[in-house]
């Protein structure tokens, strides 16, 4: 009998506590203070995004926040139930701008809301091919910011060893990784490099250089037209990225060094390409031609190749070779 009575008392006490958990709202209490954070406000449609209400708290300093719930598309319909856990992880599969709303409720069922817009991008699908009439080679191309870009590295000319110098003899000359013209990446085409002067067809004022007919060498502004999309990470433009530009994970190769074994197949945002502009700098003598390059690489020094992150200024090159892309204007 005593055990039965004790059980009844415990049950009644629990019910009373549960009933008392949410107190009646009072004019003396404030709505909870809300704090909304997201791991990415700009991402592709494969990225898991962490939504967090951590840091939200009861404005009256009592018992803390009780519940969190999420509207993941801003339609006014709650996509999650109330939960005491402040985080939610979600993948937005559809490209576009998604409005996310967080609501928090305190023990008096007073609520506060905050929202954030998350932009999701998908793959650039304006892609095609063209044939270089000079040698019949086919290249993938993609339209970005009003320009047609080669989605593969230029691979035109006669192969010469990495230690040889190019000649101004009317014959285009190229270098290939490991001196092997058959090596090709999964996305960005052949592992082909050029001397800057050869790329310019030995004319510093040339716009076309050794690009196919109807195509030209990209300018700094051409590269900036999409690299200034600061929200997009470098892997958006790299091999396998959603831009379909497939910039190859390649480096500047010093011509006085033999090739080193490297794995260019990794999808890492580490690419460097020639632009058609240059300036005259002082490096081992005055008046040295210093080409500008577009790169994702951070500042570093490798041998006599001085690299400055492209977003800051330029890359200066001495006796180095790099890959080339061409563009076509409407």
Can you describe what's shown?
It is a single chain. By secondary structure, this protein is mainly β. The chain has two domains: 28-121, Immunoglobulins (Immunoglobulin-like, Sandwich), CATH 2.60.40.10; 127-329, no CATH class. It has helices spanning 2-21, 196-199, 220-227, and strands at 37-38, 42-44, 48-52, 67-71, 87-91, 96-105, 111-121, 127-131, 138-144, 147-150, 158-159, 173-176, 192-195, 253-254, 272-281, 288-295, 300-302, 305-307, 320-322, 327-329. A five-stranded mixed sheet has the order 11-12-13-19-14. Strands 2-7-6-4 form a four-stranded mixed sheet, with no helix packed on it. Strands 8-9-10-20 form a four-stranded antiparallel sheet, with no helix packed on it. Strand 8 and strand 9 form a beta hairpin. The protein is elongated and about 85 Å long. The model is unreliable at 1-22 and 299-318 (pLDDT under 50).
What brief labels describe this structure?
Immunoglobulin-like; disordered N terminus; 330 residues; five-stranded mixed β-sheet; mainly beta
Task: Give the structure's gist in a few sentences.
The protein is mainly β. It has helices at 2-21, 196-199, 220-227; strands spanning 37-38, 42-44, 48-52, 67-71, 87-91, 96-105, 111-121, 127-131, 138-144, 147-150, 158-159, 173-176, 192-195, 253-254, 272-281, 288-295, 300-302, 305-307, 320-322, 327-329.
């Amino acid at each position: 009998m005593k055990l039965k009575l004790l059980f009844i008392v415990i049950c009644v006490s629990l019910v009373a506590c549960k009933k008392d958990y949410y107190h009646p709202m009072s004019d003396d209490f404030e709505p909870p203070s809300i704090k909304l954070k997201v791991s990415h406000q700009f991402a592709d449609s494969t990225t898991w995004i962490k939504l967090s209400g951590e840091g939200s708290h009861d404005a009256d300093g009592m018992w803390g926040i009780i519940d969190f719930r999420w509207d993941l598309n801003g339609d006014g319909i709650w996509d999650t139930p109330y939960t005491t856990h402040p985080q939610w992880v979600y993948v937005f599969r559809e490209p576009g701008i998604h409005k996310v709303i967080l609501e928090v409720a305190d023990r008096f069922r007073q609520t506060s809301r905050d929202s954030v817009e998350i932009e999701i991008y998908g793959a650039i699908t304006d892609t095609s091919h063209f044939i270089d009439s000079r040698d019949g080679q086919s290249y993938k191309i993609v339209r970005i910011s009003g320009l047609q870009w080669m989605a593969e590295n230029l691979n035109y000319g006669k192969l010469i060893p990495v230690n040889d110098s190019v000649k101004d003899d009317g014959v285009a000359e190229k270098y290939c990784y490991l001196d092997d013209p058959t090596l090709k990446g999964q996305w960005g085409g052949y592992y082909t490099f050029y001397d800057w002067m050869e790329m310019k067809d030995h004319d510093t004022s040339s716009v076309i250089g050794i690009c196919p007919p109807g195509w030209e060498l990209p300018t700094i502004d051409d590269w900036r037209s999409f690299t200034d999309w600061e929200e997009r990470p470098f892997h958006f433009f790299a091999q396998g990225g959603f831009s379909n530009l497939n910039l190859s994970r390649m480096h500047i190769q010093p011509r006085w060094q033999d090739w080193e074994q490297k794995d260019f197949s990794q999808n890492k945002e580490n690419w460097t390409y020639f632009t058609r502009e240059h300036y005259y700098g002082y490096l081992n003598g005055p008046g040295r031609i210093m080409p500008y390059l577009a790169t994702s690489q951070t500042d570093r020094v490798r041998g006599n190749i001085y690299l400055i992150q492209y977003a800051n200024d330029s890359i200066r090159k001495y006796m180095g070779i790099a890959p080339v892309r061409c563009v076509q204007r409407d």
